[in-house]
Amino acid sequence: MAQTQLYLIRHGQTDWNLRAALQGRTDIPLNETGRRQAQEARQRLEGVRFDAVYSSPLSRAMETAALVSGWPMEKIRADQRLIEIAFGPYEGKDTHTLGPAFAPFFADPASYQPPEGGESLNSVLERTADFLAFAASQHEGQTLLVAGHGAALHAMLTAALANPLEKFWSVSLDNCRVAVLARDTAAPGGWRLIASDGDGAGEYAKKYLG
Question: In the UniProt record, does the keyword Hydrolase occur (predicted)?
Fold first, then answer.
């Protein structure tokens, strides 16, 4: 039987990405650069046949999924488990201005405490791990495109690879970059990372806090 594979792609650039503003659950659309990034990702993935396409319900991820896959929007399956982490009152604010209360999110994820109205990293880990289990059971032997967000997809990678929270940001996944997971029941988390076209791993704290 064919191997189950998940192509995880972060959404394309938005205007809020440009100013390092936390988006979270705020529904910010792609900008023109983001749309171009998605078209370029489609070219990089030319030849990959997707059996199903899943996306966070937020428009920046849904449009990315449609542009990368070439599928019509109505065929893309919006899944709440893929939505971005909620930042509560931090949403819309520049990460460089939030100070020591927010800094652990990138610098020391294991000690991050969300603000009132925000979501914990453990919560994101639980729901993305649930999606992984769903994909393994419902799409055995298939290839899926999964479009999402920075924190949510890093949570999925952390769960899939059974990494500690200290390694939450260890796989670089900038806008429209792809990480590929392959099902492997012998691996600690049940999956292996077999490809990643991101760069600058470990640079998130410097980029968003420095």
Answer: yes
In whole angstroms, what is the distance from residue 117 CA to residue 86 CA? Answer: 7
C-beta atoms surrounding 88 within 10 Å = 15
Which CA distances in Å does 86 have to 59, 154, 182? 16, 14, 28
Burial class, 9, CB count within 10 angstroms (exposed 0-12 / middle 13-18 / buried 19+): buried
Span 86-90, average pLDDT: 98
The count of other CB atoms within 10 Å of the CB of residue 148 is 30
Domains of the chain (ranges, CATH numbers): 5-209 (3.40.50.1240)
Q: Could you report the per-residue pLDDT of 93-144, keeping only the tens digit for each?
A: 999 999 999 999 999 999 999 999 999 999 999 999 999 999 999 999 999 9
Between CA 178 and CA 196 the distance in angstroms is 6
Q: Which residues fall in the annotated binding site for substrate?
A: 10-17, 60
**Proportion of the chain above pLDDT 70, given as a percent:** 97
Half-sphere exposure of 36 (CA within 13 A, CB side): 3
182 burial (CB, 10 Å; 0-12 / 13-18 / 19+) is: middle
State the binding site: 10-17, 60
Residue with tokens 């019509």: 72
